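Hi all, long-time lurker, first post. I run a small reading group and we've been trying to get comfortable going from sequence to structure in the token notation. Rather than ask abstract questions, I figured I'd post a concrete chain and ask someone more experienced to write out its structure so we can walk through it together at our next meeting. Sequence below, copied exactly:
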Amino acid sequence: MLTVLATSQAQEPSADASAGFSYDAAFSRNIGWVTPEEQQSLRGKRVAIAGMGGVGGIHAVTLARLGIGAFSVADFDHFDIVNFNRQIGATVSTLQEPKVSVMAEQVRNINPEVDLRAFPDGVTDENIDAFLEGVDMFVDGFDFFVLGMRRKVFAKCRELGIPAVTAAPLGMGTAYLCFTPDGMSFEDYFQFEGEDELHQYFKFLLGLAPSALHRHSLVDTSQLNLKEERGPSTAAGCQLAAGVVGAQAIKLLLGRGPLKPAPWYHHFDAYEGKFVTKRLPSGNGNFFQKLRLKKTMQQFT
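-- Answer (accepted) --
Happy to help. Here is the structure in token form:
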């Protein structure tokens, strides 16, 4: 069953809550980094975000504060106490509350005029078309271990000509990739086809961050176990991921450059004080990348 919560339902802020709101005033401090005309252009853009947890929630808030006027957001999960270390919507008052509802409310409290479509069942085979309808940009907020639906959404984005960004919080940094309709595809870059689930996890991790700047910050390697689908994370990494997604949104939605889409990868680590941006020809099919994958799998399996 396809379930969508639209802005016309009870979650929409009351007239009193919206009283005195002015879009132009609310986002006037963006002017200078964007022109007044570009700000109005952002007001008319729709961004789809899959996942409202670690990175997805802060993506939504960051992009809302940029003045983007429409969102499609999806998540089937509820906030739990283990989310407190990194998820912007996770608080004592939101325990066991639906993530999508909590974050939708936060976005509407930033911009009561926002056109927001909420998908409380997450992204599914049944609602993927509705989720991406009228979307100008897709932002990947899926849990790291959700690869099946992630692959389907990126493939659908390519089919529909929608640019897509994935930014992973790695330690106290972030690694990110942009996929444009005329550039290298998500599948061609990561090359998951024919691999078992565990190999896909390693390919995803290594494809996101071939430079592995974060490896020296991991003081307890036992906490990273892809076979058991668990790994550590930090709020710093999530917030940095949202920052780079916001910057890429400006470029993609306003047609600004320069933009380096895949097979270019980008990795910033605030703890190490390093930034790497390099082109990885053939993605995970690259000879040296295959060697990295083999070495990493030997270390962590």
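A couple of things your group might point at:
The longest strand covers residues 164-170.
The radius of gyration is 19 Å.
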